[in-house]
Amino acid sequence: MAVSFSLRSSVLRRALSGAFYLHSQTPGAPAAATGLRCVSNAAPEQRKAAIIESTEEYRFVERLIPPSRIPAPPKHVGVTPSGWSPPADSPPPLPYMIRRSRMHNVPVYTDVTNGSRKLTLVRKVEGDIWALEKDVKQHLKEVTGEELPTQVNEVTMTLKVKGHFEKELKDWLVSKGF
Amino acid sequence: MSFPKKPGGKALDVLQNLPRISLANLRPEPGARQDGKRRGRGQHHGNRSGRGHKGERQKGTRPRLGFEGGNTPFYLAIPKYGFNEGHSRRPQYQPLSLKRLQYLIDLGRVDPTQPIDLTQLVNARGLTIQPLKRDYGVQLVDEGADIFAAKINIEVQRASEGAIAAIERNGGVITTSFYDPITLAILIKPVPFFMRGQPIPKRMLPGEDMLSYYTGAENRGYLADPEKIQQARLALAQKYGYVLPDISKDELYHMLAMRKDVRQIFFGLAPGWVVNMPEKKILKPTDEKLLKYYSS
């Protein structure tokens, strides 16, 4: 396998240079055969081609073009090695719904203002946001043992919780199936 | 199941039952607006107005920041040292953790069945490289080595030993190669380069300071001897305590063995070619001098 590597790189270079030289030699021969007179008035098909056009290698160029849309994640069963898990096939039977972000992640974010003010934000909520607030408060009480202050914004449909609880809320939402 | 968006909710119901809003019945929440501080206006904020008693404090003629009353100040007493000297000549490598790479593969943004290149990583929006800020490429970092589980053919500019071990443990191939800044800018954004209509340049070889890194087998350099690389793979497997899987028996062996030529920037495209994107054609030169230059 190691030997094949060195062979491969040298074979590649020889193949590339061979491809170049092959193209350059064939049009040159008939031009010399026509003779010395009127070389400048030689017929166009006997003049050496300046460039070669090809469309076979264009597939390599197509691989380099960046995609303009976010690709759909491939089908996984359960949690992936990186910790990401896909949403449930059918949304859970709850009065609220939390959509995934455009990068297919759970929309829970932490924020720090003025150096010490910690917040956790749950975005993209649809439905009964007050029921979600009640469930979140109850879950965090089980996990941490404290009643945490929360703020509901009905216009933007977001929920803010005081403190950093990104991991707990993300795990809880994924376990619910969102 | 989609819920119809009813922004406002209970607040909207309350609002609908109240009288019409006009400029006459608007008022801010009590405590929302606080008056600005004005000195010397009343019973206890008057007299000296919070400025103290006589001296420079009250007169407002204190000396400059950093002055320590006459002794040599801190910022002059400490001698200069060239911590940041030559900072603009130091190559930087954007770190990429194995955890992030695994995340990109899991979400389908990076295709593990094709050789992974810096172009593929940037196209997947996995990381941002700024060649104008002395970035010379990407470096693979150990973080996430224990959760990494993907068999890939990856080409980076620098890699830590733990990262190399994690990739080879899963049956993958890793190579470190050098890109000079102009070539790097082309590699990151190939489409704007193709639109320029210039021929693909040949990649330059590393300078003397980096040559030793890229000719070393422990770093899986692209200029290193393949037999030494195989020995280094075995040695690393012994050091980290895993069995080195045999790649030659793999079904994706052809893809894993794909490597770029020393002067090549893109897979499948040789230096000297011009890419015509609107007409989807590639133009190749035929002049002997050009061919000799581009294949040297």
Automatic annotation (TrEMBL), chain B:
A cellular component term (GO) from this record?
Answer: mitochondrial large ribosomal subunit
User: What residue spans carry the region label Disordered?
Assistant: 1-68
The yes or no answer to whether the keyword Transmembrane helix is present is no
Could you tell me the keywords of this UniProt record? Answer: Mitochondrion, Ribonucleoprotein, Ribosomal protein, Transit peptide
The Large ribosomal subunit protein uL15/eL18 domain sits at: 95-175
GO terms assigned for molecular function: structural constituent of ribosome
Biased composition annotated in UniProt, kind: Basic residues: 38-52
Top-rank taxon of the source lineage equals Eukaryota
Q: Name one Pfam family in it.
A: Ribosomal_L27A
Q: Where in the cell is it found?
A: Mitochondrion
Tell me which Gene Ontology terms the entry assigns under biological process.
translation
Q: Which family does it belong to?
A: Belongs to the universal ribosomal protein uL15 family.
Task: Give the HAMAP family listed for this entry.
Answer: Ribosomal_uL15 (MF_01341)
- Name listed for the protein in its UniProt record: Large ribosomal subunit protein uL15m
Q: Which species is this UniProt entry from?
A: Acanthochromis polyacanthus (spiny chromis)
Taxonomic lineage per UniProt?
Eukaryota, Metazoa, Chordata, Craniata, Vertebrata
